[in-house]
């Protein structure tokens, strides 16, 4: 993502940038991201025209593209699920993560960076993840980073076209059909509090909808624990 940001001024249209090896990988909120050799790390640079809250919904677009990529490569769509807000699971283990960053000026977002990390060959050691986080897993399919990117770019283009053409509604519907722990109790942790409730929905703004003893709560950003 740092390299993508460095090159952004010279990028006019959708562009993928892939790193064969990372030395400073990071995840949400600046957390370290363990990326063993042979795994996939790529960033898609876009020049979106929508308002920032709509642009941010592309995390769901990327998740669907990853789901279809994994399904195509393995022939096992039942093995995968999407974890709100930005992870893909394989048999309950964390297989991939998505990170959105952006840049702009005067309240306008003009560049979006969609960072994607996938455990293609190896999963980080449990000691490399924080307490309570989903245990990582690897894809288990022999494929080069370049070939994986080709497959991912193809599926991303399909979902991006649907998003731009029809809006978030079909993206939301497809994401919910693949959602992990829908209808089950989850914990949403935020910097100053946590909420435990039944995962009921994702609304039209991408918020996590939990039913709690105090009623329905819409959560715009949190870490979710099972």
Task: Furnish the topology, listing elements before pairings.
Layout: H1 2-7, E1 15-18, E2 40-46, H2 52-55, H3 58-74, E3 80-83, E4 87-90, E5 93-105, E6 108-118, H4 145-166, H5 168-177, E7 185-190, E8 193-202, E9 208-212, E10 215-219, E11 223-225
Antiparallel strand pairs: 1-2, 2-6, 3-4, 4-5, 5-6, 7-8, 7-11, 8-9, 9-10
Helix pairs in contact: 3-4, 3-5, 4-5
How would you describe what is shown here?
This protein has helices spanning 2-7, 52-55, 58-74, 145-166, 168-177, and strands at 15-18, 40-46, 80-83, 87-90, 93-105, 108-118, 185-190, 193-202, 208-212, 215-219, 223-225. It has 226 residues and is α+β, with helices and mostly antiparallel strands. The strands form two sheets. It has a six-stranded antiparallel β-sheet with strand order 1-2-6-5-4-3. It has a five-stranded antiparallel β-sheet with strand order 10-9-8-7-11, with no helix packed on it. β3 and β4 form a beta hairpin. The protein is globular, with a radius of gyration of 17 Å.
Entry summary:
It contains 5 helices and 11 strands; from the N terminus they run H-E-E-H-H-E-E-E-E-H-H-E-E-E-E-E.
Count of discrete alpha- or pi-helical segments spanning 4 or more residues:
5
- Evaluate the radius of gyration: 17 Å
Q: How would a crystallographer describe the biggest sheet?
A: 6 strands, antiparallel
Q: What order do the helices and strands follow?
A: HEEHHEEEEHHEEEEE
- Tell me the fraction of residues in β-strands, as a range: 25-35%
Features:
single chain; about 230 residues; alpha+beta; 6-stranded antiparallel β-sheet; 5-stranded antiparallel β-sheet; 5 helices; 11 strands; about 25% helix; about 30% strand
């Amino acid at each position: 993502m740092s390299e993508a940001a460095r090159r952004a001024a010279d990028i006019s249209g959708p562009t993928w940038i892939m790193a064969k090896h990372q030395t400073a990988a990071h995840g949400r909120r600046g957390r370290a991201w363990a990326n063993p050799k042979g795994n996939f790390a790529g960033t898609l640079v876009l020049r979106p025209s929508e308002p920032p809250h709509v642009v941010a919904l592309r995390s769901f677009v990327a998740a669907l593209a990853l789901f279809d990529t994994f399904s195509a490569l393995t022939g096992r769509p039942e093995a995968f699920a999407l974890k709100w807000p930005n992870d893909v699971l394989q048999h309950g283990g964390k297989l991939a993560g998505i990170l959105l960053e952006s840049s702009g000026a005067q309240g306008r977002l003009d560049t979006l960076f969609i960072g994607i990390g996938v455990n293609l060959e190896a999963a980080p050691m449990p000691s490399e993840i924080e307490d309570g986080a989903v245990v990582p897993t690897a894809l288990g399919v022999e494929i080069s980073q370049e070939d994986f990117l080709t497959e991912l770019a193809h599926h991303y283009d399909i979902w991006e076209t649907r998003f731009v053409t029809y809006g978030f509604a079909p993206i939301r519907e497809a994401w919910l059909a693949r959602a992990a722990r829908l209808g089950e109790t989850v914990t949403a942790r935020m910097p100053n509090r946590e909420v435990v409730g039944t995962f009921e929905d994702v609304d039209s703004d991408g918020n996590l909808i939990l039913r709690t003893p105090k009623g329905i709560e819409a959560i715009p950003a949190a870490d979710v624990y099972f």
